[in-house]
Amino acid sequence: TAILFSRLLVWDDEGHIEQMIKNTAQDQRLPPNLPPEDFNNLPEKPGVYYFYNEVKKVIYVGKAVNIKKRVASHFSGHKINPQRQHFLRDIYSISFEVCGNELMALLLECTEIKHLWPTYNRALKRFEPKFGLYQYEARNGYKYLAIGKLNKFQSCIEQFSSLHEATNIMRGLAEQFEIDYRFCKYSKPQEGEIFQNNDIKDLPNVLHHNEQVDNAIDFLLNNRPTFAIIEKGRTAHERSCIWIENGHFYGMGYIPLDVAITDPLEVKNYATPYKSNQYIEQLIFAYAEKNPRKVFFNKNLLKSGI
Question: How far apart are CA 231 and CA 32, in angstroms?
Answer without folding.
Answer: 40
